[in-house]
Structure formats: structure tokens, C-alpha cells
Amino acid sequence: MTAARLSQLHMMTQLYEGKAKILYQTEAPDVLRTVFKDDATAFNAQKRGQIIGKGEVNCTVSAAIFRWLATRGIATHFLEQTAPTEMLVRAVKILPLEVVARNIAAGSLCKQTGLPLGQVLPEPLVEFYYKNDALGDPLLTRDRLLLLELATPEQLEQLRNLTLVINRHLREFFEQCEITLVDFKLEFGLDSDAQLLLADEISPDTCRLWDRAETDPQRRVLDKDRFRHDLGHVEAAYQQIRERVLAVAQSGDG
Ligand code: TMP
To answer: Which of 28, 66, 111, 158 has a 20 to 30 A CA-CA distance from 72?
Structure first.
């Protein structure tokens, strides 16, 4: 589909409203419109609030990163950003998995294993969580994942390898932003040809991003942990990420 044709697609029926985004159908059956919201939740929606400007930051940052990943040969659902908080994406059937990659111990890894916050992992860790709010998105073992038929063994291997490749590209990108990529969550979907595409978003909501110039464990945080743990200056951190990501993306050598 041409860029001109894409920009003519109008918003139609709302398909789904999630915690951070709303999905709409368009006239094209294989194209959806995503609207990013300022609403923020944490701890499976036990904590709720708003981060002013988040919708715009997450849409713009995700668009820039999806474009950049495409130049590295990563197939994504992203088609075009059509407004500050809106993008067109290819319609996919989302796999009910949250694939987390970790480079440095933080968050639930520290909580569940006792590893100290900030410990650099000897090699990146890839984990699969069951995308199921009612169950609280539990961590899956390989056998449980296969038992529930959430993916085939081949898809599992493909997802793991792809996530490791994406991690290498994202680390390189964020390094240029003077940011350490601590960990992040990805979602994948299958298009109508059963091709596996990177989907959802890549943003300060879904990544842990630490300012490389700061060593203070609170001041260095430039992601949703500021909201999760009431660290203050949440909006300023999101704007920092937007500015740094756009500067690198627009420099062309990102
Ligand atoms: P965790 O340490 O809480 O398991 O989070 C790992 C990464 O996944 C972190 O970058 C935040 C991201 N994440 C989401 O994007 N959505 C979620 O629902 C959760 C729990 C984490």
C-alpha cells in the first residue's frame, strides 16, 4: 500500500481498548490504527494514573525505533505515524506471550531471585510470560508454554533468537542515546501469511532505560519505573527519552 493510500485510511470501529492504547479498524482489512493514551497503570493495574504527554512520547519513540529496526532487517507491524499519538500498523494475531530480554538485573528478576539491582548479567536472559491479566501475566517455563500451546517449539526458538537479535540492535541504538538498555518487553504477532512480526510498542513504558551519565540509582531512571515507584519527574523523563531517541534517529546513522 502506498503512503498516499495509507494516509487516506479513516478511523472506523473501535476493536479493543487496552491499558495504554486503543485499536481501531480502518477501511483496509489488514491495517489497524493505534491511538496511544496518557493513561498509565502498574502492577497489573493496581496502580493507576496519567503521565501527561506519554501517548505522544510512546507513539513517536515506538515509530522511530520500529523504523530503525526495519533498516536492520527486523520485520515489524509498523506502517506509518499519522498523528502525534496515532500510528497505522499491520493487523496481526498477537501471540499471548510477553517476551522479556534482560541485560542487567532489575525489577521482578531481583525480586524473585535475590540478584542485586544493577548486576550485569553474564549474557542476556530471555524470558516468556503468559499475557493474561486475569492470571497476573505469570512467568512461564518452556514446558508450561508448550503445554498451553502458546507457541510451537519452532516458534519458541524463533522468538528467542529474534529477541536476542533485537536486543543487540536496541542496545546499540540506546548506547548512541547515552542510555543503558537494562531490560524490555516485546510482543509478537502473526500476519495473514503467518509471518511473525514484532508488534505492540517499544517505549519507556516497556523498557528500563538508565541515563549513562548518572550513577545515582534513582536519578538515572528514565522510564516507567519513575511512575511505578513514585520517583517523581515522570513526564520529564519521558520527554528526555523522546528527545534523545529523535536526535539519534534523525542523525541518520542511528
Ligand atoms: P519486570 O522486571 O517487572 O518483569 O519487567 C521486565 C520488563 O518488562 C521491564 O522493562 C518492564 C517491562 N514490562 C512491560 O512492558 N509490561 C509489563 O506488564 C511488565 C510487568 C513489565
So the answer is: 28
- How many angstroms separate the CA atoms of 55 and 83, rounded? 11
Q: For residue 48, how many other CB atoms are within 10 A of its CB?
A: 11
Point out the ligand 1 atom lying closest to the alpha carbon of residue 208: 10
Query: Could you report the per-residue pLDDT of 153-208, keeping only the tens digit for each?
Result: 999 999 999 999 999 999 999 999 999 999 999 999 999 999 999 999 999 999 99
Determine the pLDDT at residue 254. Answer: 47
Ligand 1 touching residue 227 (CB < 6 A): no
Centroid of ligand 1 to alpha carbon of 120 (angstroms): 17
Minimum-distance ligand 1 atom for the alpha carbon of 111 = 2
To test the ligand 1 pocket, which listed residue (100, 109, 210, 223) has its Cβ within 8 A of the most ligand atoms? 100
For residue 11, what pLDDT is reported? 64
Domain ranges in the chain are 3-92, 94-234
Ligand 1 atom nearest the C-alpha of 107 is 2
pLDDT digits (tens, 9 = 90+) for 46-85: 999 999 999 999 999 999 999 999 999 999 999 999 999 9
CA distance 170 to 208: 12
CATH code for residues 94-234: 3.30.470.20
Architecture of the 3-92 domain: 2-Layer Sandwich (3.30)
Q: Is 186 in the pocket of ligand 1 (CB under 6 A)?
A: no
185 pocket-lining for ligand 1 (C-beta < 6 Å): yes
Cα–Cα distance between 54 and 138 in angstroms, integer? 26
Distance, CA of 121 to CA of 140 (rounded, Å): 20
Ligand 1 centroid, distance to 36 Cα (angstroms): 18
